Amino acid sequence: xxxxTYFRKGFGLKQEIEGALTADYHSRLVERLREGGxxxxxGNLTFRLAKEFGFCYGVDRAVEYAYETRTxxxxxxxxxVGEIIHNPHVNRRLTDMGVTILAREGGxxxxxxxxxxxxxxxxxxxxxxVRDFERLRAxxxxxVDTTCGSVLNVWKRVERYAKEGFTALVHGKHYHEExxxxxxxxxxxxxxxxxxxxxxxxxxxxxxxxxxxxxxAPLARQFEAAVSEGFAFTTDLARVxxxxxxxxxxxESLAIADRVGKALAARYGADALDQHFRSFDTICSxxxxxxxxxxxxxxxxxxxxxxxxxxxxxxTMSLARICSGRVRTYHIEDAQCIDPATGTLRHQPVGxxxxxxxxxxxxxxxxxxxxxxxxxxxxxxxxxxxxxxxQTRGVAV
Length: 397
Known about the structure:
With about 400 residues, the chain is α/β, with parallel strands linked by helices.
């Protein structure tokens, strides 16, 4: 009987890996906060934790599946296509377990040259492009697919758009692994097209072009890296279906869909809109829940907000962006960003790409600190951060 070479539903080894997962990612301090109604007061510091935070179901599943894979194939070489999730600690832990992370060759395609039919390759929670999947299948290696179910739902929608002759307009970052994998789904149908917009500022000139026409050259230059091959703005925006990268700001995704719909209605008439526009809610429920939770958290006064997670994590950046409009917010990667001896904090400001230092980030005296974390941040990193904040006040945990 031939060996199975594609796995997506796990290996039934959760009991065997549970101890390792607990040791690597759980936190007693976070559990204490939960038990205390998501609130903890120590001395003159009060911590308030968002009710939805950290690992989502899709990330949990991907990490568990990676640990199961190591257990299932103890003597095989294991490879991972890029990062399993956007958290440096989780990826480093997998490397420590003997998993080799495959990188993009020259920033373009992943280098699969070292993979053989005897190897096992893990596909990340973001998924992989149609082309990368086909390349790996051609190798004949064992594939372990941890693609998040919410991402798969977006893929189905984008594929349907292509099948029906609609251009997929995706709210996302054109360089992000998830968005690359998502837009590649249009290639399943001849003539499939896509356009990626990052925010309302980017979609606005597209909508004006839909409404008024004009010279497509400026748009072609602006979106050179964010459109399908041979994209023609004069014809490929006549029928548009909207989708989104699952970790973007939910409210902005809805606003983009609304703006595109209005542009198409202005161009072709409201009565004909069904022939030119498609929009379905592809917002990830976990992303929505975490964004809703911090909005609820900020209904009460906070002196400062800590958002914990990888600097390349889109959902973490979205959380920081929401918080920054209402309270002094610091997006930090982990507890190491806080220096208890000097009281200094390293963080990445919203919209920036580099860290900066904040010497007086924690107010003197009594203070309330809000805490949340991106969907790829384990509880252990949240607990370590709270402990490090307490250390700045001389409290050992």
